[in-house]
Amino acid sequence: MSTSEVVQPHRTKTLRRPVGYAPRRWKRALPLYFMLLPTLAYLMVLTYYPLVHAVVISMQDFNLIGNRPFVGLKNYENVLSDPNFWGDFRNTLVLGVSILTIGFVAPIVIALSLNEVLQTWLKRSVQMVIYLPHLFSWVVVGGLWIQLLAPAGGLVNAVLAVFGVSPVQFMSDPQVARWVIILVSVWKDVGFNCIIYLAGIVGINPSLYESARVDGANRWQEMRHITLPGLARTMQVVGLLSIMGVLRIFDQIFVMRNAVIEPKVNVLMTYVYDEGFQQMNIGQATASALLILVFTLVLTIFTRRLIRYDT
Amino acid sequence: MRHRWTSGRVIFAGLNIVFLLLIASTMIIPLWNAVAVSLSSNFGSMASGILMWPRHFSFSGYRTIWTVLDLWQPFENSVIVSVIGTLLHVLLCAMAGYALAQPELPGRRVMITLILISMMIPFESIMIPFYVTIQELGLLNTLVALILTGLVSGFSILLMRNFFQSIPQEIMESARMDGAGHFRIFFRMCLPLSTAGLATVALIEFVGRWNNLLATVLLISDSSKETLQVALNGMVNQGSSTSSGDLVTNNVKMAGIIIAIVPLVFVYPFAQKYFVKGIFLGGNKE
Fold it and tell me: Does domain B69-282 have CATH number 1.10.3720.10?
C-alpha cells in the first residue's frame, strides 16, 4: 500500500478511501508521532515560542525581574534612531560584502589550481591542510591570529622586522583590523569551500573533456568552457550558504574585537548581544534582533529567487 | 599525459605548485608556531623573534593552564556537553527523520514545513528570548541547558530523512509483513543501514558543540559550569591577566589552544569525507 503511494501519490489521493481506513492509519502512525515528539517539543518550546515571545518583548520595557510595561513601538524607534545600530549595520555591510567577494573567488581559484596538480599525494596533502581551520573554533582561530599579529613577539611582525618594516599595530588600528577580520574569516573557510568545489569538479561529465580534446582545446580552454560552467550549481550553493553565514557573524567579532577597534568591527549580532546583555536594554535589543531577522529572511528569499536554488 | 608538455606548461605547473604551497603554509605555520610557543618556557615564549622551535623546552605552559588556571574543569564540562549532546542529537534527529520518511504519516507536510521554517531562523537572532525561555524553565547555569541548546536541528533531521528514503521500500515492506513495528524497523534495520548518515550528523554536531561559544556565553555565568571555549577565550583573548592577577604568558595561551584542538584531531581523518557529504545531502549547512 505504502509502496504504491510513493510511486503514484497523485493517484491514491483520488481513490475513495475504504471505510475504517482513517482510524487505522492514525493508529499505525502512533509510534511515528512518538518518535517525532521530542523534535516537535523542541521546535515549539525553544524555537517558535521564543520567536513569538520576541515580538512581545520587543514591545515591552522588559526587565528580567519586575514588571514589564508595554511601550508600543518605542523600542523600534529607539533602534532606528540609534547611531550605533546604523554604524554596526554599515560594518556588517562592509565586512559582509568583502568576505563574500574574496571568500567566493578564493576557493574557486584554489580548487582550479589544485585540479591542475598531477601528483595525487601533493593534491591530497594540500587539501587536508587547507581544510584544517574550518574545524577550529573562533576562539582558537582568533587566539592564533591575535598571537601571530601581536606587535611584540608576534611571528608576522618578527618576519616584517627582518625586512626592516617597523611593527604594524594590526589589532589596534581600526582600518587594519577590519582587513584582519575579513582575511581571517576568508582564511578559515577557504579550504572547506575549496573541497566542495573539488567535489563538484569530480562530478563533471568526463566525456565533455574528451570531446573538447578531440576538438583540439587546450587546458585553459577546458577550464574556461567546461570546468567553470560545470561548477555553476556548486557556486550557487556555496554563495547562498555564505550570504546566510555573513549575516550571522558573531563569534569571530566577539573573540577578536577590543575596545579600540569596536566601532569599526562590531556587527549586527554583536549589537543585539551588547544591547541586551551589557546595557540590559532587553526590549530594544529584541526589537533590533527582529528587524535583523526580517532583513535576513527578505534577503534569503530574494537570493533564492535570484539563483533559483530549488531547480 | 593528456596534453603535450611544452616548456610553458612546465613553468605553469611549477608556479601552480608554489602558489598552493604558499596557501598551505598560511595554515601550517600558525599551527607550528603555536606548538613551538606552547612548548617553550614562560620566559622563552615572551621573547620576540621568529620562533619555529621551542625556546627552552618546557611543559610549564600546559601545566599552568591545566592545573593552575584549572582548564580541566571547563574541559570536562565540554566533554560532557559535547558527548551527551551529540548522542541525543543523533538519536532524536534520526527518529524524526525516520518518521518523516514514512509516506503514510498524516500531517507530514505540516511538520516538514515547520522544520523548514525553523531552519531559516538563525539562533543568534532569537538569543534573547531563548535566554528568557531557559530562565523560565529554571535551567540557567546548568549543563542541561547547554545540552538542550540545539538538541535537534532541521539540517540533521532532513539529512537523516534523505538517508532513510534511499533505503529500498521493499525491505521495510517485508519486515512490516512479518509484523515488525516502527520502532523495531527503525532500530534493527534503518539505523544499521544508515551508518554513513549517522556518522555525518554525529561528526558535524560534535565539532559544532565542541566549538560552540554563544550558548555558554548566554546561559552560563557560574565559572564552574563554563565550557572550554568560553574559559579559553577569557584566558587567551580578553586581556593578558587572569582574575587572580597572574600574567598569562604566551606559552600558556598556546597550550590552551592546542588542548582545544586535540579532540578535533581525532575527528579530523573522517571530517573531510563526511562534512562534504553533509553539504550535498542536506543542501544546507545549518
Answer: yes
